[in-house]
Amino acid sequence: MRLLRGLLGAVLWILAAVVGLVAVVLCITIILLPVGIPLLLLSRRLFRLATRLFLPRSVRHPLQEANKSARQTSRKARKRAKELDKSMPALDISTAKKKWHKLVKRQRKTLSSVR
Question: How many whole angstroms separate alpha carbon 23 and alpha carbon 36?
Fold first, then answer.
């Protein structure tokens, strides 16, 4: 599929170049200027479409790809949280506090080493 898109993009790029060249020649002659300007705009659109065909999806649609990866990451996090919840035994308050303080201490240490 990627090869086909690249081939189609190359053909479209060549077509846009030919149309652009014809448009420039028509714009040089003052009489055919009303025909040359729309052809120049068409050439520009064809170049844009050809470029989009060459690019991968993540570059063409960055917001959609970011949303997609965020959804996948949140799914993984929820799954991991459920697994951790099942694996953790029921703790009493004092043990939970100790574990919480150790966790906070570790987080502070890693944050201070990042700076």
Answer: 4
Q: Tokens 């506090």 sit at which residue?
A: 97
Distance CA 12, CA 20 (A): 12
For position 88, what pLDDT does the model report? 66
Radius of gyration of the chain (CA): 29
Please tell me the pTM assigned to this model. 0.54
In the block, tokens 């705009």 appear at 41
Q: Return the C-alpha torsion angle 13, 14, 15, 21, nearest 10.
A: 110
Query: Tokens for 38?
Result: 């729309």
What kind and span of H or E run contains 111? Answer: helix 93-114
User: Which residue is associated with the tokens 């990627």?
Assistant: 2
